[in-house]
Amino acid sequence: MNLGRVLRPKEPRNVKITAVVCAVLVLVYLVGAAFRPWSPKRGLGLIFGFLAAFAFIFEMLYPARRPRAWPLFTAKNWIQVHVYLGVVALLAVFIHAGFTWPHGTMGWALFVLSAWTTVSGL
Q1: Cβ 102 vs Cβ 113: under 8 Å
Q2: 50 vs 96: CA distance, rounded Å
Q3: How far is CA 50 from CA 43, 67, 111, in A?
């Protein structure tokens, strides 16, 4: 089996959309952090935390796509959204934390589980 063929994106357009969304999120972080000290507890930091949480909740709906694949219509659409939204969710976790390492046991547990979930999905 050719590894390059397996790892090649099935829908290159979705990779580009994901890259643009990620770039916009990082830009929002950079602008927000330039005007106020970054905190995961308030403002944009809290919004990115909610974004990550809601994205991961949507990710968990993947098994519920059957029998009609509602609302994304096909299993292919579901898997594409599932994979690429996982990348956006992990980026939102990093931004939520202000691109700093987690503090405490719970912070590390959430960080490691988020990273593991996203990497294993890719």
Answers
A1: no
A2: 9
A3: 11, 29, 15
Q: Which two tokens stand for residue 72?
A: 């994304």
Cβ neighbours of residue 38 closer than 8 Å, sequence gap 6 or more: 29, 32, 44, 45, 98
- Quote the CA–CA distance of 49 and 26 in Å, as a whole number: 14
Q: What is the pLDDT of residues 4-26, one digit of tens each?
A: 665 677 778 888 999 999 999 99
Predicted pLDDT of residue 4:
66
pLDDT tens for each residue of 59-113: 887 777 666 556 667 777 778 888 899 999 999 999 999 999 988 999 899 899 8
Residue 45 Cα distances to 84, 88, 98, angstroms: 21, 15, 7
Measured CA to CA, the distance from residue 56 to residue 90 in angstroms comes to: 9
Task: Look up residue 97 and give its two tokens.
Answer: 């934390």
- Token pair, residue 64, equals 């519920």
Both tokens of residue 86? 């996982």
How far apart, in whole angstroms, are the C-alpha atoms of residue 35 and residue 28? Answer: 11
